[in-house]
Amino acid sequence: MDRIAIQGGAQLFGEIPISGAKNSAIKLMAASILTDQPLRLTNMPRLADTKFLGQLLRQFGITVTESDGPDGQQTLFDAKAITSTFAPYELVRQMRASFNVLGPLLARTGHARVSLPGGCTIGARPVDLHIDALSRLGASIELDEGYVSATAPKGLRGAEIVFPFVSVGATEHALLAAVLANGTTVLRNAAREPEIGDLARCLIAMGARIQGLDTDVLTIDGVTSLNGTDWSVIPDRIEMGSYAVAAAMAGGEVRLTHARADLIQALTDKMIQAGVEITPTDDGVIVRRDPARRLKAVDVTTEIYPGFATDLQAQFMALMTTAEGTSVIHETIFENRFMHAPELARLGADIAVHAGEARVNGVEVLHGAPVMATDLRASVSLVIAGLVAQGETTVGRVYHLDRGFERLEEKLGACGAQIRRIHGEDDSDGH
Ligand code: UD1
């Protein structure tokens, strides 16, 4: 397994291009199941997660072709014929979101058997809302030996679905199924994350009829078939936010491009309060910070979009480890999402975790040490802390990082970070 080594202390100056959003790309990939015509996705990130899902789609008989097109990285999906509707545990366990193939397989063919998911070990993360939504749409569902078998021989039918709480995955899953259902579906208390808007807009370009975009009520009039289209994946707001925090942590001046400032406003508002200079541009932001001036501690609470993203909580905690004062961080979306706190403590951070709250008492300096990535976003928080920790920090289990960050060492290295990948060393003992 690879590790990443960072020599702390270098300021960052330069430009970082932001990739297409992982969390949008993988849902758009699932949409390819819904049509027998080619779907071409551009601005596609090349990540472990998109690779996993590509493998799973091939299992269904879909042709998946990655190439460098006139608009950069693209992937062409051709689902002319679906030859299998079985998603085995070996493929689904690698990534939780691959469970979202169930709805589109069912909508297109009337049956599917999909393993229950794996994915990041943050909280319990069940899929009860997904299953309830598909049942409401008329699917018969059986659970056996870790598999979900669903059938709808006469097709799905429109229904009113009221989510008991907001779920990104369940909203997307219901949307992916309802577009081909017979009749009208209303999704209430739907998630409003920008990636859902991206998926809905792509589905509309494929011929779907959806109203209420970017609101918490989506109304879908089912159609009998969808067409192919070309679609450019929305910029990755979590990657953008991570590099914004990295620049603020290290100090210097970094321009984030191919992105959208509005997608990370909840984060940049907090960064400004902490003393970071943020300048929105036409295609991103410029982040400036004088490392001679200490940042101020700021409290954050994670919320559904447009609130502060849970996927940026670990990175913000890293930033607060050296701020002046105490920052109180509340995690409201996932239980057990502070696994990065003990790892940050190995670098000298002073963090007390109690239930869904972490109190970060800023320290003057961090010291490099071997640390271990525990999930995707936690792993990047360790890299961020490593940018200022004195001496060398090595981050183990970087396969977590590779799930969601494209060419991270290259992007940070181009701005002056002293960062390199150490290939193939076994870090299975953790530290
Ligand atoms: C998505 C994102 C993830 C992000 C999260 C919240 C993808 C691939 N992942 O995850 O990066 O952190 O949104 O913004 O897009 N829940 C249930 N039952 C369900 C579904 C969810 O209890 O059937 C719970 C979860 O355990 C969690 C909460 O609902 O506590 C929110 O989860 P959800 O919004 O569904 O997150 P994901 O779609 O898994």
Topology:
Elements: E1 3-7, E2 12-17, H1 22-31, E3 39-42, H2 48-59, E4 63-69, E5 72-78, E6 86-87, H3 89-92, H4 102-109, E7 111-115, H5 128-136, E8 140-144, E9 147-151, E10 160-162, H6 168-178, E11 184-188, H7 194-205, E12 209-211, E13 217-221, E14 229-232, H8 237-250, E15 252-257, H9 265-274, E16 277-281, E17 284-289, E18 300-301, H10 313-320, E19 326-330, H11 340-346, E20 350-354, E21 357-361, E22 370-372, H12 376-386, E23 392-396, H13 399-402, H14 408-413, E24 418-422
Parallel strand pairs: 2-15, 3-14, 6-7, 10-11, 18-19, 22-23
Antiparallel strand pairs: 1-23, 1-24, 3-5, 4-5, 7-9, 8-9, 11-13, 12-13, 15-17, 16-17, 19-21, 20-21
Bound molecules: uridine-diphosphate-N-acetylglucosamine.
Structural commentary:
By secondary structure, this protein is an alpha/beta fold. It folds into 2 domains: 3-18 and 235-422, Alpha-beta prism (UDP-n-acetylglucosamine1-carboxyvinyl-transferase, Chain), CATH 3.65.10.10; 22-232, UDP-n-acetylglucosamine1-carboxyvinyl-transferase, Chain. Helix content is 29%, strand content 26%. The strands form 6 sheets. A 4-stranded mixed β-sheet has the order 22-23-1-24. The chain has a 4-stranded mixed β-sheet with strand order 2-15-17-16, with helices on one face. Strands 4-5-3-14 form a 4-stranded mixed β-sheet. Helix 1 (22-31) packs parallel to helix 2 (48-59) and helix 4 (102-109) runs parallel beside helix 6. The two termini are 13 Å apart. The model is unreliable at 427-431 (pLDDT under 50).
